[in-house]
Amino acid sequence: VQFVESGGGLVQPGGSLRLSCAASGFTFSSFSMSWYRQAPGKEREWVASVARAGGSTYYGDSVKGRFTISRDNAKNTVYLQMSSLKPEDTAVYYCKASGFTTWGQGTQVTVSS
Hints:
- By secondary structure, this protein is mainly beta.
- The chain is about 0% helix and about 50% strand.
- Strands 2-10-9-4-5-6 form a six-stranded mixed sheet, with no helix packed on it.
- The radius of gyration is 13 Å and the shape is globular.
- It starts with a strand and ends with a strand.
- The model has no long low-confidence stretch (mean pLDDT about 95).
């Protein structure tokens, strides 16, 4: 099982980024997928989840209305579209499949002027 996150970077407050997570080593379409984030000195925080077929999505209160999670089962990839970014969104972002304990290396998102 492997996850490779990408798409992070430095963005100004109010900007947008799209993160991608390429998954391998399991039947991607059979598992719900989630994004988590960890800011310096803080515990890892759940951000959003998407159901196996992509029809149902769930969000943490801090990102609801600003972030959109989606998936492409043909590409074994889950996405996180982030808009109206705030400095408090600065963190390393990780994806994870339900039922697995494996984490990828994450992708750094920094929101700063």
